[in-house]
Design brief:
By secondary structure, the chain is mainly β. The chain is 0% helix and 43% strand. It has one domain (2-93): Immunoglobulin-like (Sandwich), CATH 2.60.40.
Length: 112
């Protein structure tokens, strides 16, 4: 299920986030794309969800889904540097009891 994320927090950086609907092993996935030609320091804030750490996988000119060192979540934030022209996929388990999916919002469109 796609969850809210600031789509373009920095010029040339695009982010989307997803949460599994499996309540037995809830998982968070964040995809960050850096289209620039330079490293981009980036801090991700987790709101209404909690995780201890996220595991990054990096794809770039020289890396193909290369697993990097786990990044700890501290005070609801994790800091990383996005490699130039890369896709970084962060994956981690959500903490139990703090990972309920957001409520479903219904949109009503009036008849004209």
């Amino acid at each position: 299920m796609r969850i809210g994320a600031t789509a373009s927090p920095i010029d040339g950086v695009y982010v989307s986030a997803y949460r599994s609907q499996d309540e037995t092993t809830p998982t968070l996935v964040i995809v960050a794309i850096n289209t620039t030609t330079s490293d981009q320091p980036y801090t991700i804030g987790l709101i209404n969800i909690a995780a201890d750490a996220l595991l990054p996988y990096i794809t770039s000119d020289s890396l193909d889904m290369a697993q990097a060192a786990s990044i700890a979540v501290t005070n609801g934030e994790l800091a990383l540097t996005l490699a130039p022209r890369s896709v970084t996929t962060l994956v981690g388990d959500l903490k139990s009891g703090e990972s309920a999916p957001p409520p479903v919002h219904k949109i009503y469109i009036p008849y004209f």
